[in-house]
Each structure stands twice: as C-alpha cells, then as structure tokens.
TrEMBL record:
It comes from the Bacteria. It comes from Halobacillus dabanensis. Residues 112-157 are annotated as: Disordered. This is Uncharacterized protein.
C-alpha cells in the first residue's frame, strides 16, 4: 500500500503528505477526492483508512487502476460487477420445504392483489423491526436444485452455515430470463389438460399469459403411479369449476414455441386446488 500521497486541489500547488498528516475532520473538509498516487505518470486516486490505536494508511480508491509501470500496480480480481466469483452450491430441497412452498403458493393464489400487497407491507415492517448479528457469507451462493448434481459434502457444510435456499414463487405471467434453469413455484388457473402414456401437459393461465407445465419421462420414471391419473383433473374441474394449479419445476424455453415452460419431475411437486394428484384422484374415484 502507498506510504504517501499527492494532494492536489486543482491549483498549481501539489504537495506530498502521509496518512498521519490527516485526521478525519480535515480529510472530510479538505483531502477527500484530492489524493493521488505519488508514482510518475500514475493518476490513481487514493483514500485514507483511519485505524484506532494503529497507524492510518492509504489504499487505492475502489475501481481506480494504477499505471502498469507503477510500483503499486495490481491486476484487479473479477468481482460481482464483472465475473461472478461467488461459489455456487446446489442444495436439494427437503420434502417439508416443498410442501410448505406449495401451501403458501395456494394461499397466495386465493388472495386478491390488494390482500397480497397488504401482507407484504406487514412482512416488510416486521423485517425492519428485526435485527440480527449474523453476517452473510458473500463468497457462497446457495441455489435450490430439483435434479442437478449435488456435492453432498459441500451441501452438508452449506446447510450448517445457512438456511435452506429460497424457492421463489412466480405467477404464470411473471417468469423472466433470470428464472431460466432454476426451480420456481409457478401458479395459475388450469385451462387445459392433455395426457398420454408417460407424458402429460397442463396449461395454466394468469392474466393474459398462458404457461405450459410438462410432465415427461423423468417424471413418470420417478412417479409411475401418476400415469393415467391426469384425466381426473378435467373431471374434477367439470364438477367444481376453475382450478388453481401450483407446481415446483424447472423453468426453460420451449424448443418448439420459444416461450417459457416448466418441467416437473416428482409427483409430490404440484397440487391442484391444494391437493396432490393422488388425493384428487381418490376423490374422483368415489363418484362412481
């Protein structure tokens, strides 16, 4: 770090000073923004770091670069402003977390926009009144995963330090590019159901947007008992009217339409009117 700095206020006089020549008051009133590297042909700006019971020192102002011939030149590490240097750890969501996410999504789907806004205001106020001494680990980002590869050792270590990863709720009309490749809870009104052997598709709608939710081979390999049950959603709708769908799946872009779509991989990862497909089918079976 530089031992001294050049002070220049734009006038003709320039003088060299040390960090100990400056106190917090004079720094604020006189020197801030006017301190430069002392090396020839280097115009990097410096700031003073004040330390209790130890000597003050200069450091390079954030995003300032020294001349390549300067003795203080360094190659800046990639940061979140450029290349993301955070380590990303994939963590599997627990069944309890997924159940709670679906219950919450169903509750939100039954609320008006005004009720949701009022609820968010109350939550925001509660957060303002809550303090914590826990420091965030800015070097690690925990991402939820449905079917991605997981380093089990890193997963265990991550969960010791941090809570389970957040699972964001999106209406059928609220997906964006930032959701691609990530698990999301999607919600909307069921408008159609199509199924055949080892494949099903539920189309949901929110506002003027329609979203395809697909259940493919991976889903039926994991949940073979779901095969043949999707038609019960249509039967249930014929008796009870419009139905609310909530599901946890991976967001992607359709190879045929270019629109967003969602793939679901497990039979417990979606509900219709707050019921699993198995539960809803059991009710329909009692109708005879």
């Amino acid at each position: 770090m530089p031992d001294s700095a050049l002070f220049s206020n734009g006038a003709t006089s320039v003088r060299e000073i040390t960090a100990d020549d400056i106190d917090p008051s004079s720094y604020k009133d006189t020197y801030k923004g006017q301190l430069y590297c002392t090396s020839e042909n280097c115009n990097a700006k410096l700031v003073v770091v004040f330390r209790y019971s130890r000597r003050n020192y200069f450091r390079t102002l954030q995003n300032e670069d020294h001349d390549e011939d300067c003795i203080h030149y360094f190659e800046r590490s990639a940061t979140r402003g450029g290349i993301d240097t955070q380590e990303t750890i994939n963590v599997r969501m627990s069944e309890k977390q997924k159940r709670n996410a679906l219950k919450r999504a169903f509750s939100l789907s039954q609320m008006t926009d005004e009720q949701i806004e009022e609820m968010r205001k109350k939550q925001k106020n509660r957060k303002k009144n809550t303090t914590t001494n826990n420091r965030k680990d800015t070097q690690t980002r925990i991402e939820p995963t449905l079917n991605g590869e997981v380093d089990e050792e890193k997963e265990r270590e991550a969960l010791k330090k941090k809570k389970a990863p957040s699972l964001f709720n999106r209406g059928a009309d609220a997906l964006s590019e930032s959701d691609l490749g990530k698990p999301r809870v999607v919600s909307g009104e069921v408008i159609s159901v199509y199924s055949k052997k080892n494949f099903a598709q539920i189309k949901i709608r929110r506002g003027n947007t329609t979203l395809s939710v697909k259940f493919e081979e991976a889903f039926f390999a994991d949940s073979p008992n779901s095969d043949g049950l999707f038609g019960n959603i249509t039967k249930y709708s014929e008796k009870h009217g419009p139905l609310i769908f909530n599901g946890i799946g991976e967001v992607r872009v359709s190879s045929t339409t270019g629109e967003y779509e969602v793939a679901i991989f497990n039979g417990n990862d979606f509900t219709v009117e707050g019921r699993t497909l198995q539960s809803l089918s059991a009710i329909v079976a009692t109708w005879g």
